[in-house]
Every structure is written in C-alpha cells, then in structure tokens.
Amino acid sequence: MTKPDPFSYFKTSREIIRLAVMLYVRLPLFLRNVEDLLHERGIDVSHEAVRYWWHRFGPMFAAEIRKRRITGMKSSKWRWHLDEVFVKINGERHYLWRAVDHEGEVLESFVTKTRDKKAALKFLKKAMRKYGRPEVIVTDLLRSYGAALKEIGAADRQETGRWLNNRAENSHLPFRRRERAMLRFRRMRSLQKFAAVHASVYNHFNQERSLSTRPNFKLNRAAALAEWRGLCAA
What Pfam families does the record tag this protein with (predicted)? Predict the structure, then answer.
C-alpha cells in the first residue's frame, strides 16, 4: 500500500513548503521575516501560510528525522546529560526537561508544570522507552532526579558534579534564542510541540562546525540539506 502524499492538496510546491518550515524552525525568525525572505526570492506567500505549514508539516518532518536517527544512534546509550530550564507560559512558570547524549544530540524534550519526582520519573520513562537505558546519567543536584532514578533501579548510574553537565546546559541556548524570537508561548501544548520539532531540526543540521575541517563541513551540510529536501517524499 502506497503512503499518501501529504503535499497533494497544496497548490504551493513541496520545495517551498520545506524551505519555509526550515527557515522558521531552524533560525530565530518571526513569521513575517520568513515571508519577507521568501518574497525576496520571488515567492509570494503570507505569514499565515507559513504558520499553517509549520503546524501541519513541522511535526511530520520531525517525526521522520527522529525515526531515521534513532536507528543509527546506538552510541546514545553510553552517556546522557539531563537538565531542566524555566519557561513562562502566560506568566506561569513551567519546566522544559531535556535529555542530551554525549555527542550533543537532543534525545527528548518534555514540558511539565512541576519539577518533582513524579515529573522527573515521567520524563525518564518517556526517554528510555525510545532510546533504551544509558550506562551513565549526568544530572545536577536536583533531588527529583535521584528519587526517580532510584525508583527505576538506575541510581547507581547517576553522576553529579560541577561542570559535568555543561553539555545539557549548552543545549538550551539554541532554544532560548528561538523562544525570544517567538515572543514566548501561550499554551503548554504549543511549547511541547515546538520544543520537539526544534530539537529534531537542530539535531539534523548541527554539524559541530568547530570539530571538522571546512571541506568536511561543506559535505555534511550538503548531505543534511539533501536529506531535508527528501523528507515526506511521495
């Protein structure tokens, strides 16, 4: 049975839709900025069209990226870094939990209203369902992590210490830049949706430029763009 083409009912070409979604999710741009960039390239679409495309196709693109990457990420079981960051929704504080592996891949993003043991346990179970159990789990000194890890029988895998968790803390920076451009969030559901999509797109285009030569970086960037253009192909 052939998979239905998700672009079949749209007059705009799939290449333009992919480009618009990539610009909006990957770069710290407003919807009207994306509209202006596309107009400069001779593409006349409204910012509301970009908004609709991102809501419709963003999760689809992210799911396909995640599916492809999970199969080739056996090394992610080696070492995880866990951290949470404060995010305000309509003036109310929420918490964005994030699991990052030793190579900087964002494995899981999860939004909760609290950061107690119950929230930490739910976050850990969700991440381990997808990626399996890591050998080492690096956290800060938040006691919720220790209590949750003890309940699932992984307390002996926890490591805490000064500067050990910089990998997770640095992973928040791209999201923070994007959050400022979006003028914050209005609903928990929209935060969860965007955090998950942004993490997948960031993983896809993150080439660790400082660790590779210019020729290798260009090859990796071209490969990432080619793979992006083939997402959700009929």
Answer: DDE_Tnp_IS240
In this prediction the pTM is 0.86
Residue 71 — pLDDT band, cuts 50, 70, 90? confident
Element (H, E) at 186: none
Q: Judge contact between 75 and 101, C-beta under 8 A.
A: yes
In sequence order, which residues have a C-beta less than 8 Å from that of residue 149 and are 6 or more positions away? Answer: 124, 137, 155, 157, 158
**Among 54, 10, 11, which Cα is nearest to 30's?**
54
pLDDT over threshold 70, residue 93: yes
Structure tokens at 221: 């960037």
Other Cβ atoms closer than 10 A to 123: 25
Kindly list the strands in the beta sheet with 158-160, ordered across the sheet, starting from the edge strand earlier in the chain. 106-112, 92-101, 79-89, 136-139, 158-160
* 73 pLDDT higher than 70: no
Query: Which pLDDT band holds residue 169 (cuts at 50, 70, 90)?
Result: confident
Can you list the domains of the chain with their CATH numbers? 79-186 (3.30.420.10)
Contact 157, 135 (CB under 8 A): yes
